[in-house]
Structure formats: structure tokens, C-alpha cells
Specification:
Mean pLDDT: 86
Strand order of the largest sheet: 1-2
Low-confidence stretches: none
Helix content: over 70%
Number of strands: 8
Structural class: mainly alpha
Largest sheet: 2 strands, antiparallel
Number of helices: 14
Order of helices and strands: EEHHHHHHEEEEEHHHHEHHHH
């Protein structure tokens, strides 16, 4: 028995119940978890938004990018400039920051439209060095190495900060609790838009370019135009992720947006599953949670210790572990974590059938 969800589509009651239960859990999280877990979850949401954008470019279109951190920096810093220096309302400043990240991607898109593979990766790597130079030396705008304070978002009269005080069901709702719901809305919107792109004609064209560029061109797909457009879209996703990350950090510095961040994003989409929105989210959660968990519980884990005490620091241990995860995925799980989950879901009914047959 199934319920109708549109022309030609049905929704299984069990799946609908599972989705509703997941939404209920996510809505209830701020009422039960402490600040550490809320901040960690918000880091994962920001990472998931950026990973979805990178997966559209790398996973769906086959374009390697090592400069994704630049667009997060563009979103974070331009939000501060638009909100604090230009005096724009913070929602308008956030929207302008996303657009500006897309404009920066658009300036690079002619190169992105003509290069592919390792050549594009090397070209985008140059963006990181240029971005770091600008962030460190444009002191009046970026604050230099000390960075800048991030003004809180104010939406429909609600300030996403610890002040003014807000209490719901005897639970104090500070900045993290309020940002939790903003992050959920932004992530849901970003995921829904990306799924629509991948499910429509643009997604078919992007996959055709990834699988066989020459054949796609013969079929009438404007390859150069699509590559450039997807690069701009990926840049805007990075800008949105940067805005959310800045709101969570409350203080941004150039070192937050270095080459290691771009490598983290590549690890996210490989571990989670290339070309998939759900895989982007899974990979982002894995890569974002791991260093936080090691930092929180490193004192009870072997070989994990404070820097300079003889063991691996939590950050080093996290990079070693998800570096090993990338190798394992490439060798044994081409579909990433999403592919593994899909295979397990298919295997369980078969095991039940074998059991009943016996």
C-alpha cells in the first residue's frame, strides 16, 4: 500500500514515517544536546552545503577543483563587509555574499570551461594562493591575519545571537540553538535544488559530459557553457557554506580557508559518494564529525594526545583516518558510503527471503 506524491510517483508509508521521524529528531535536537554537539552539527551542515556544490562540479560533471575554500572565504568575508561596512540588512548581505562568490566563480569560469581533469585542478589550486595573499594583506577589508568579527544574522526580528535572551520550554536558546534551525533550512533548500538540477535535463547533460565529453558534444550539449555554468553554481554553494560557517565561528581568520579545507571537501565527496546529494551529506558528516569526536574523546583513545606530548593530535589523527577512508573507498567501495548503504538495503530483503525459504 502506498500514498500518491505526484504524477507517476508514490511514497511508501514506511519511508514517509522514517522521514517524519528524522525531521522530528532534528527539530528536537537543540532542546536536549549541549553546545559542543550543536556547534559540531552546524559545522557538518555548512560542510554538507559546500560539498553538495563541489559534487555538482566534480562528481556530476567530472571537473576537478582544488580551490573550493576560496569561495567559502568569499562568502564569509563578503557577508561581513556587506553587513557591517555597507550597512545592509543581514539577510540581504548573505544573499549578496552568495552572489559575489558566484561572480568570482564566473570570472574564473572561462578557464573552467576549457580545462579539465588535472589541468583544472592545478589552475584552481592557484586560487587558494591568491586568496590567502589577499586575505592576509587586505587588512582594511579582511582584518589581516587577525580576521574580523562576524555580525549576527537578524531575520524577521529574530537575532541569531545569545542576546537578547530567549527561552523555549525552559531551555535557553542562544546563538547555536537559533542557528541550528537556520542551518537546517539552508541545507534542505540547497539539497532540494541540487536534486532538482541532477534529476532534470541539466543533470543528464552534466553526466554526459563527465562520462564522454565528445559524445556529449555530438549530441548537442554545449560542453564549454555547461562546465562554466556548473562552476559558477558550485561557487555559489561554497559562498553559502561560507556564510553559515562564519555565523557559527563568529570570528573568521584567513587560516580557516587554506588548502587543507579544499582537500577536506574532496575527501567528503569521495567518501560519501560522487555525483550524489545524499553522498555529499554523508561524507560531510563523516569528515566534520571525526576531528571533533577525536578532540572530545581523545584522552581515552590510543595514540591520540595533545600536540607535543608524543602522540597524534586530534586533527592529525582525523586526517590520517579519513585519508585511509578515501583509499578504502577508492579500492573497495566505488560508490562511497552511500553505495555501501544502498547495497546493505538491497541485501537485507534477500537475506529475509533466504531465511523464509529455509
Amino acid at each position: 500500500m502506498s500514498s500518491t506524491a505526484g504524477p507517476g510517483r508514490t511514497v511508501r508509508p514506511a519511508r514517509l514515517i522514517a522521514w517524519l521521524a528524522a525531521v522530528a529528531v532534528l527539530v528536537a535536537v537543540p532542546f536536549y544536546l549541549e553546545a559542543f554537539w550543536l556547534q559540531t552539527g552546524l559545522f557538518a551542515m555548512s560542510a554538507a552545503i559546500g560539498a553538495i556544490g563541489l559534487n555538482l562540479l566534480t562528481g556530476a560533471t567530472g571537473q576537478l577543483s582544488l580551490g573550493h575554500a576560496l569561495f567559502l572565504a568569499a562568502g564569509a568575508y563578503s557577508y561581513i563587509v556587506f553587513a557591517e561596512d555597507a550597512g545592509l540588512p543581514t539577510p540581504v548581505a548573505a544573499a549578496c555574499a552568495v552572489v559575489l562568490a558566484g561572480v568570482i566563480g564566473g570570472l574564473f569560469s572561462p578557464i573552467a570551461g576549457r580545462l579539465k581533469g588535472a589541468y583544472l585542478g592545478i589552475a584552481t589550486l592557484a586560487l587558494i594562493f591568491v586568496g590567502q595573499h589577499v586575505l592576509h594583506n587586505a587588512g582594511p577589508v579582511t582584518g589581516g591575519s587577525n580576521g574580523r568579527r562576524v555580525p549576527p544574522m537578524e531575520l524577521f526580528g529574530l537575532v541569531f545571537d545569545d542576546r537578547p535572551e530567549l527561552v523555549l520550554l525552559d531551555v535557553p536558546f542562544g546563538a547555536l540553538e537559533r542557528l541550528w534551525y537556520l542551518g537546517l533550512v539552508l541545507l534542505a533548500g540547497a539539497a532540494a535544488f541540487a536534486r532538482g538540477v541532477l534529476a532534470g535535463r541539466p543533470g543528464i547533460a552534466m553526466n554526459a559530459i563527465r562520462d564522454h565529453e565528445t559524445a556529449a558534444g555530438v549530441m548537442g550539449v554545449p560542453v564549454t557553457r555547461y562546465r562554466a555554468a556548473v562552476f559558477v553554481l558550485s561557487s555559489m554553494y561554497g559562498g553559502l557554506a561560507g556564510v553559515l560557517l562564519a555565523l557559527v565561528f563568529r570570528q573568521v581568520v584567513p587560516d580557516n580557508f587554506g588548502m587543507l579545507l579544499s582537500l577536506d571537501y574532496l575527501a567528503m565527496i569521495v567518501i560519501g559518494g560522487l555525483g550524489s546529494v545524499a553522498g555529499s551529506v554523508l561524507g560531510a558528516v563523516f569528515v566534520s564529525l571525526l576531528p571533533q569526536l577525536l578532540m572530545r574523546y581523545g584522552d581515552v583513545l590510543p595514540l591520540v594526545a595533545e600536540p607535543g606530548t608524543g602522540g597524534f593530535s586530534p586533527a592529525e589523527a582525523a586526517r590520517i583516518l579519513y585519508g585511509a577512508a578515501v583509499v578504502a573507498v577508492v579500492l573497495f567501495l566505488p560508490g562511497g558510503l552511500l553505495g555501501l548503504i544502498t547495497r546493505l538495503r538491497r541485501a537485507i530483503p534477500r537475506l529475509k527471503e533466504v531465511k523464509w525459504a529455509r
